Amino acid sequence: MDIRLSRSAQGLIITVDDARIDAAVAIEFKEAVRSATEESGTPVILDLSKVTFLDSSGLGAIVAVMKLLAPDRRLELAGLTPSVAKVFRLTRMDTVFTIHPQPPGTLQEAG
Amino acid sequence: MPNRVISFFQATGAARASPDTGGFGAERLAAKPLFSRHLNAGVYETRAALRDLVQALGSAGLDAEMIDNTELILAEVLNNIAEHAYVDGEGPVAVQVMCQRDGLVCEVSDRGRALTSGVLPDPALPKIAPPDHLPEGGFGWHIIRSLACDLSYRRDGGANRLVFRIPCA
User: Fold this and answer.
1) pLDDT digit string (tens) for B87-118?
2) Domain map of chain B by residue range?
3) Domain extents for chain A?
4) Which helix (H) or strand (E) covers residue B161, if one does?
5) Which of residues 52-71 of A touch B (CB under 8 A)?
6) What fold is seen in the domain B27-167?
7) Is pTM beyond 0.90 here?
8) Closest by Cβ to A83, choosing from B68, B134, B135
9) Which CATH class is domain A3-105?
């Protein structure tokens, strides 16, 4: 599970460089994000623009991450591809997250 | 169980009917499947099967949304089998996808435990709740039922058999 960190005015951007967040990587995804967000106090924006497949395991992992960050930090989503957006819509979880059409522009690579 | 009447999809030319035992004791007249796979339940074999499925459906000229729906439904079904049907998360699964005029018919069989209630789950969508109470699971069957129709399940000679239809968008 490859993720990349960067910063924007809106918060810490976590870009998922994997095409799939599914049962095979759900746990790895949660752990990767958990490690990445240990120090940040700002909102976290998950850039999913490279993710073309998300199943209920992946959705569950994203929800788990949101719960992990709450209540101090918000988890927002960005760049949902059509099939990923569909999963959020079908499960009504699109009402739970702030969803940006595109990830915000980055200021710098986060160290 | 009466034989299903299957209309032939003529995309690639003459379709042929042939007896198909499928390795699970099924015997029926069937059109040549668009996709057929025997796999071991598990996340990596599921990924490989889904990758090949997507390729097969793309080659058959199905539209992107249909392919996405089929991939998602089968991902959920296969994950369920690995997580619930097989105690150790492993075991044989057979998948077949066939074309009909109005969509795809899919059949998934496994040799794991029977559904405890004997009927397919139809759970309510997990409720949206404040952040610390958000559900992390229970979405799978809702996704399946949102996208597939005519779902049927039966237990047959030590095998679970799930059949459903994916309508054209």
Assistant:
1) 888 899 999 999 998 899 999 999 999 988 88
2) 27-167
3) 3-105
4) strand B159-167
5) 53, 55-57, 59-61, 63-64, 66-67, 70-71
6) Heat Shock Protein 90 (3.30.565)
7) no
8) B68
9) alpha beta
